[in-house]
Every structure is written in structure tokens, then in C-alpha cells.
Design a protein that fits this description.
This protein is mainly α and 474 residues long. The protein has 18 helices and no strands. Helix 3 packs antiparallel against helix 10, helix 13 (301-319) packs across helix 15 (358-385) and helix 16 packs antiparallel against helix 17 (434-452). The radius of gyration is 21 Å and the shape is globular.
Length: 474
């Protein structure tokens, strides 16, 4: 008969797998529609470029509503909020699949983004509270892979579904997954809450929302060929003012919508600082690679998608050895050395040309997948290694907000870097060449390299309790 500890470990494992599955569903919907946009545009009778509204609306909603997830979990309980988030996300997926106009689709994506905004940090919080410190490395490794895998397999999967069926099935596929997730949530996640009397910080929510929305939209405009620079300037100014005001407010509010106290923990602060620059660089790659293969190299969407699967293979392969590597070398050494390797693997993509053998392209992408997977998992684990249980809710909300922001910023940085390449070579948006992508990947690699500098501030035994580094082998 299983002991109480065994039952607890089994329940913890089920929660980890449930949260990982929900994260995958949420992350996949952020990228899978990219290859389906032309067909969707025909369905809505609009120009394909106008369909970017569907992606932007989703990412912006995530960034805006994630900050209130910690308050919602504390006020209403983990099971209530996580289960409701899955239900809203699933229902919104059905609405996305049945819409017939672009405005209706954008509205459904906003609703879907609200559900996704609750799923990400609250699900992570459920894992953090259910997992002992010694099991945190494995748990974080499992729930990290959706953020690595979904952006890679999303475009080819979306292209396959669109080619052989209809783009609407991209959203219908969420229905069975959502129903299963909802049932498992009701069965295995406790409805724990930290502070049911915590007041909602409306000023903080408004200021954070304005800062996120204006800055993300401004960066998106910069990446366009027809950017309105006056509008960009207004948005940047508004975003900076709102950002400074929100920082001032959050540090002084008695019950802020996002608790910044976890930033006093050195490991968390470093993971949010230099780690965010790395995530920006990594998030630019899934945007640039399909464009380079299709526009620069002349491959079709399916061939492009198959090549990007090499990154996915590298991600999964590294998962097999991440824990032993962390135990052997510790967080600081791994993050610094592997961070440099990850940055150079991005820069190495600048050497690829249409005449490069496919096998060599696959090797470069596979190596990049290995290094980015290790860095991604190490940063996410280090984030919560030393955060006290009482601060987990605020830390999770802040981490998830920055994660979504860096994903959106990463795409924008990729677009801006590509525009720099076009400018240097005298090209316009209609005559992009392979050499433009070379410049873009060099810039993205440099951004990732800058993020490594912050990691030198870590102590040699940072996060040792979680990594097991320095412990005698038994």
C-alpha cells in the first residue's frame, strides 16, 4: 500500500504534468497561427498584414492581465483561478474558431489572452507550492519545455493543419485538452490561498497595463516598414512615464498588484535582469528563422518548418542531462559558460546561406536548441531557488509578466534587427536578402551576450540547495 509520502509525490507529479500541458496549450496558441494567417485573411476578407492584430491582441492581453493573477490566486484560491482560466481559455478557443470577421476574432483572442494570463503564473504557483525544494529542478525543467517547444513546432504544425484541413481546427484542438485539464484541476489541485483579504490594486494594475501596452506596441511599430515615428515617440514617452510611475507605486503600495519584494533576493533579481535579455534574444529566433528560410532561402513553409524542428530536437535532448549538468557545475558556472555558447549559437546563424548544406543547417540549429534549453531551464529554476514561500505568489506573477513581455519584445527586436540589416544593405521591405538576416542574427546574438554580464554577480553557491551542487554523492 503506498505511503502518504508516495501519494504526495504522485500528486505533485500529476500537478506538474497538468501545468506543463496547460502551458504548452497557452504558448502554442501564441505562435501556431503564424502560418495560417493567409488562409484566415481570406476567410475574413482582409489583407494578410492586418491579421497581425490577432497575434498582438493575444500577447498584449497576456502582458496586461498576468499581474493580477497573484492577487486572484490569493483571493479566490489556486484551484478556482486555475480551473476558471482553463475554462475561459477553452471557451475562447471555440469562439476564435467560429468567428467570421477580424474584429470578432480579435475580441475572442483578447478573451483567450485573459484565460492564458491566469494559467501561466497560477499554474507555476501550484507547482511551486506542491513541490519540495529538492524536487524543484525536475519540476521546473518539465514546465519549462512548453516555452521552448511551442514556438518551434507551432509554425509547422499550424501549416500542416491549414494545408490539409482548416485553420479553425487550430483552435478546436484546444477543446479536448481543456476539458481534460479542467477535470484534473478539480481533482488534484488544492484550493489554497495566501491572503483572502488582500485588496485589489487598481492604480497599480492600470499603470502596469499602460506601460506594457504602449511599450510593446511602440516596438512593434518600429519593426514595420511604414512606421509612424511620431506615434512611436508618443507611445515610448507614455510607456516610460507609466513604467516609472508603476515602479514608484508598486514599491510604496501596501498591497501592490505585483509584489516587487522578491527582487531583493539576489538570484531572483539576476534571473529577471540578465535573464530577460537572454529570453529576448531567444524569442527573436523563432520569428527570424522561418522568414530567413522562406524569404531569404526560397523554401516553402513546410520545408522551413521541418528545419526548425532541429531546434526542438536540441531542446528535448538537453532535457535528458540538464539535472546532472546542474548538479556537477552549479548555476553560476553553467549560466555564464552556456550563456556565452547560446549567444554564439545565435550569431552562428548569420553564417547560413542558401547554399549551406541542409545537414550543416540542422547541426547549427540543433546546437542552438541544446544551449538555449539548458539556459532557459537554469534561469527559470534559479528564479525561485531562494524565494521564500510567502513571496512565491508575487514572484510568480512578476516572473510571468516579464516572460510574456520579453517574448513580445523579442519578436519586435528581431523585426528591428532585420530592418537594420535592410538599411545597411540599401534594401526595402520588398527585397529582403539573406545578408539582411545575417546582420539580424548578429544583433540578436549580441543582445544575448550582454545578458551574460549580469550573471557574474551570482555567488559560486547560488541556488545550491536546488541544484545539489557541492553535495557529496551517495
Amino acid at each position: 500500500m503506498p505511503s502518504e509520502r508516495d501519494r504526495g509525490n504522485q500528486g505533485s507529479s500529476l500537478i506538474v504534468m497538468l501545468v506543463a500541458a496547460s502551458f504548452f496549450m497557452e504558448n502554442l496558441d501564441g505562435t501556431i497561427i503564424a502560418t495560417a494567417l493567409p488562409q484566415m485573411a481570406r476567410s475574413f476578407n482582409v489583407h494578410p498584414a492586418d491579421m497581425s492584430l490577432g497575434i498582438t491582441a493575444y500577447l498584449l492581453t497576456l502582458a496586461v492581465f498576468i499581474p493580477i493573477s497573484g492577487w486572484a490566486a490569493d483571493r479566490f484560491g489556486l484551484r478556482t483561478v486555475f480551473g476558471s482560466a482553463i475554462a475561459v481559455f477553452t471557451a475562447a478557443s471555440v469562439l476564435c474558431a467560429t468567428t467570421s470577421t477580424l474584429p470578432a476574432f480579435a475580441a475572442a483572442r483578447v478573451l483567450q489572452g485573459i484565460g492564458g494570463a491566469m494559467m501561466v503564473p497560477v499554474g507555476r504557483l501550484a507547482v511551486l507550492r506542491a513541490t519540495p525544494k529538492e524536487g524543484l529542478m525536475r519540476a521546473i525543467a518539465i514546465i519549462t519545455w512548453p516555452g521552448l517547444v511551442a514556438p518551434v513546432i507551432g509554425p509547422p504544425l499550424g501549416g500542416f493543419i491549414t494545408t490539409y484541413s482548416s485553420w479553425r481546427w487550430i483552435f478546436y484542438l484546444n477543446v479536448p485538452l481543456g476539458l481534460i485539464g479542467l477535470l484534473l484541476t478539480l481533482r488534484y489541485i488544492d484550493n489554497t490561498r495566501e491572503d483572502a483579504q488582500r485588496r485589489f490594486d487598481l492604480p497599480g494594475f492600470a499603470l502596469c497595463g499602460i506601460a506594457c501596452t504602449t511599450l510593446l506596441y511602440a516596438m512593434e511599430l518600429v519593426g514595420r516598414s511604414d512606421a509612424d515615428w511620431r506615434m512611436v515617440g508618443v507611445l515610448v514617452a507614455a510607456g516610460v512615464i507609466a513604467g516609472v510611475a508603476s515602479w514608484w507605486h508598486l514599491r510604496r503600495a501596501a498591497q501592490p498588484v505585483v509584489d516587487l519584494s522578491a527582487l531583493k533576493v539576489k538570484t531572483f533579481a539576476v534571473a529577471m535582469g540578465g535573464g530577460s535579455l537572454f529570453r529576448i534574444a531567444i524569442s527573436a529566433a523563432p520569428f527570424l528563422l522561418p522568414l530567413m528560410f522562406q524569404v531569404g532561402f526560397g523554401l516553402n513553409a513546410f520545408e522551413s518548418g521541418l528545419l526548425t524542428l532541429a531546434v526542438f530536437a536540441g531542446n528535448l535532448s538537453m532535457k535528458l542531462v540538464t539535472t546532472p549538468v546542474m548538479r556537477q557545475f552549479g548555476f553560476r558556472r553553467v549560466l555564464i559558460v552556456n550563456g556565452v555558447l547560446a549567444a554564439f549559437s545565435l550569431a552562428a546563424m548569420s553564417l547560413l546561406t542558401p547554399s549551406t548544406p541542409k545537414l550543416l543547417i540542422v547541426a547549427v540549429l540543433f546546437a542552438s536548441g541544446l544551449s538555449r534549453s539548458l539556459q532557459f531551464t537554469a534561469l527559470n529554476t534559479l528564479s525561485f531557488a531562494d524565494v521564500p514561500k510567502s513571496q512565491m505568489s508575487g514572484a510568480s506573477a512578476l516572473s510571468s509578466t516579464l516572460f510574456q513581455m520579453t517574448m513580445g519584445i523579442g519578436v519586435a527586436v528581431g523585426a528591428i534587427a532585420l530592418r537594420v540589416g535592410e538599411w545597411l544593405h540599401g534594401h526595402d521591405a520588398h527585397s529582403i536578402g539573406p545578408e539582411d538576416f545575417s546582420v539580424a542574427f548578429l544583433i540578436v546574438g549580441f543582445v544575448g551576450l550582454i545578458g551574460v554580464a549580469d550573471l557574474f554577480g551570482l555567488s559560486r553557491d547560488a541556488g545550491a540547495l536546488v541544484s545539489g551542487h557541492g553535495k557529496p554523492k551517495t
